């Protein structure tokens, strides 16, 4: 194979965000744009001679073309073996699983997750390291620095690889192995959950299920595991065929975008469990019949009940949540006598805690839940967890959550997003708030007195690395909180996220409407931040 070293000029905007580099497809298709980023990763990795890398994506538009380029560049950079999911597909958690199981050096995951796909929409790429998790900030910062000075990249003249046939091909020094995208992941799930029990309940009809794959990556995984292995009736998985543009939808599992599922679950003939996942399969939404489980509650319920499931019978070492996620998980940890860590937003911050065996389970308010089994959040895992729980407890989803609230109290929780805000205006909103933080403590607004207000700074308890500027939080004396931060995954303008939380111990008051309960906090956040005037919007674009 002939190896070419090509000259290139740097792009200055290749800074990875919360989860990899995400841009419009058209930006990725610019000359050498993808090549520059991939070579920057190789340059930071150093010697990859003979090493194993994993490749796969969520199947969105440009996935196949990008993979062929990465194969040629891997060969030119001397990679020993590439493991690639058939069809160029691997869900994010499955990629993490494959990296760990096959002791790979790392892998590239091609996805822009819950962002829409298609020629005018989004594409993304991220590198995961040897533990199977997203590269830490020290690595992504080094890649960004490299991308700003890159002058050459290496590419091999390898033929196009047939991504659709399982088998091995040679590209220069690199063995390219196309693997079944689902098998390793399905094996792992079988070891964590009681497949026999779930299967009996599904076949007997004592548990009914609808899983909305949203025309994204989890279609093949859900069909294989839920329908073929566990015996859920054919048709339990809807929108199960992955499409390059996700069928024109927005593959984000929430009540707004997964509306087909949400409508079914709110109807009189709703199944017992409703679930959806996102573009790359790492998010999950859980619903019961006429009942929505907030992601913050979901991780707390899973933590409180984990010991009932085969994979977690030994108990939990500790738990963790991202800072804006509700404190429902903290209450469970306290009752169990285990540690609860608070990390910045983004899964990469859980990796060290998991590797150091400080935690077993973790989650984010953004529909992300996961455990020690891989180093990514895992959508289908969460669905299987709930299925197993419903089968063991022989209770409905709503009963399980209400019982949980009774025991621990309820954290009313909501996130308001203002999307597509002018970047300067968005920064102005955060700057305005930042300027007020010092004088807020002690002030009273209606029913709320500020206990403390700060700009969240994280010191990693394992390696001591520091991450500054991870969101502004206003914490009240009664434990309620308002958090403000800017999204790090968008590709157009800025998104301002405002998170609200209010704790209610009294079970008599657990049946109220969330937005109504949070109204006073919402009004306060809007007046302190001037978000409406400054964004020019009269309401949030998405409320979850
Ligand atoms: C969002 C979520 C964050 C999540 C990230 C990646 O980030 O808030 O919790 O880890 O997406 O998820 P941000 O910076 O936009 O708030 V995924 O499923 O898009 O990889
Ligand atoms: Co995702």
Query: Percent of residues in helical segments?
Result: 25-40%
CATH class of the largest domain: Alpha Beta
Structurally, the number of domains stands at: 3
Distance between the termini: 52 Å
Number of strands: 27
How many individual helices? 18
CATH topology of the largest domain: Alpha-D-Glucose-1,6-Bisphosphate, Chain A, domain 3
Could you name the key traits of this structure?
single chain; alpha/beta; Alpha-D-Glucose-1,6-Bisphosphate, Chain A, domain 3; TATA-Binding Protein; 7-stranded mixed sheet; 7-stranded antiparallel sheet; binds cobalt (II) ion
Give a description of the structure.
This protein has 18 helices and 27 strands. The radius of gyration is 23 Å and the shape is globular. The protein has a 7-stranded mixed β-sheet, with helices on both faces. The chain has 3 domains: about 180 residues, Alpha-D-Glucose-1,6-Bisphosphate, Chain A, domain 3 (3-Layer(aba) Sandwich), CATH 3.40.120; about 220 residues, Alpha-D-Glucose-1,6-Bisphosphate, Chain A, domain 3, CATH 3.40.120.10; about 130 residues, TATA-Binding Protein (2-Layer Sandwich). With about 550 residues, it is α/β, with parallel strands linked by helices. The structure holds alpha-D-glucose-1-phosphate-6-vanadate (VG1) and cobalt (II) ion.
Short structural description:
The chain is of the alpha/beta class. Helices cover 33% and strands 26% of the residues.
């Amino acid at each position: 194979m002939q190896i070419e070293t090509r000259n290139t000029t740097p792009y200055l905007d290749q800074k990875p965000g919360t989860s990899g580099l995400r841009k419009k497809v058209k930006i990725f298709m610019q000359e050498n744009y993808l090549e520059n980023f991939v070579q920057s990763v190789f340059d930071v990795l150093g010697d990859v001679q003979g090493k194993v890398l994993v490749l796969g994506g969520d199947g969105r538009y440009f996935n196949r073309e990008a993979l062929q380029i990465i194969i040629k560049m891997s060969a030119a950079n001397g990679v020993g073996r590439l493991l690639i999911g058939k069809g160029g597909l691997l869900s994010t958690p499955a990629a993490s699983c494959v990296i760990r199981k096959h002791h790979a050096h790392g892998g590239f995951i091609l996805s822009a997750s819950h962002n829409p796909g298609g020629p005018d929409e989004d594409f993304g790429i991220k590198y995961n390291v040897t533990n199977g998790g997203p590269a830490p900030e020290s690595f992504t910062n080094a890649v960004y620095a490299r991308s700003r000075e890159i002058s050459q990249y290496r590419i091999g003249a390898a033929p196009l690889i047939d991504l659709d046939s399982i088998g091995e091909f040679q590209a220069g020094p690199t063995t390219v192995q196309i693997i079944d995208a689902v098998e390793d992941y399905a094996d792992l799930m079988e070891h964590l959950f009681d497949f026999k029990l779930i299967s009996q309940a599904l076949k007997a009809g004592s548990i009914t299920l609808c899983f909305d794959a949203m025309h994204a990556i989890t279609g093949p995984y859900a069909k294989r595991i839920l329908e073929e292995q566990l015996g859920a009736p054919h048709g339990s998985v809807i929108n199960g065929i992955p499409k390059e543009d996700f069928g024109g939808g927005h593959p984000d599992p929430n009540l707004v975008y997964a509306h087909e599922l949400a409508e079914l679950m709110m109807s009189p003939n709703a199944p017992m469990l409703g679930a959806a996942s996102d573009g790359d399969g790492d998010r999950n939404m859980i619903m019961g019949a006429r009942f929505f489980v907030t992601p913050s509650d979901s991780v707390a319920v899973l933590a409180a009940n984990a010991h009932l499931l085969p994979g977690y019978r030994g108990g939990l070492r500790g738990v963790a949540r991202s800072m804006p996620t509700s404190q429902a998980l903290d209450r469970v940890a306290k009752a169990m006598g285990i540690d609860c860590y608070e990390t910045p937003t983004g899964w990469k911050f859980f990796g060290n805690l998991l590797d150091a065996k400080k935690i077993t389970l973790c989650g984010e308010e953004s529909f992300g839940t996961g455990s020690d089994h891989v180093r990514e959040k895992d959508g289908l895992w969460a669905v299987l967890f709930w299925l197993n729980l419903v089968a063991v407890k022989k209770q409905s989803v709503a009963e399980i959550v209400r019982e949980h609230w009774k025991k621990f109290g309820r954290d009313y929780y909501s996130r308001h997003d203002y999307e597509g805000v002018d970047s300067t205006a968005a920064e102005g909103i955060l700057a305005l708030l930042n300027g007020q933080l010092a004088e807020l403590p002690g002030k009273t607004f209606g029913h709320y007195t500020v206990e403390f207000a700060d700009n969240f700074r994280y010191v990693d308890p394992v390696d001591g690395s520091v991450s500054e500027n991870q969101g502004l939080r206003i914490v009240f004396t009664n434990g309620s909180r308002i958090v403000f931060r800017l999204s790090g995954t968008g590709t157009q303008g800025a998104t301002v996220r405002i998170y609200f939380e209010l704790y209610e111990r009294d079970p008599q008051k657990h049946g109220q409407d969330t937005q109504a309960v949070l109204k006073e906090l919402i009004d306060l956040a809007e007046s302190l931040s001037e978000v409406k005037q400054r964004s020019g919007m009269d309401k949030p674009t998405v409320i979850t």
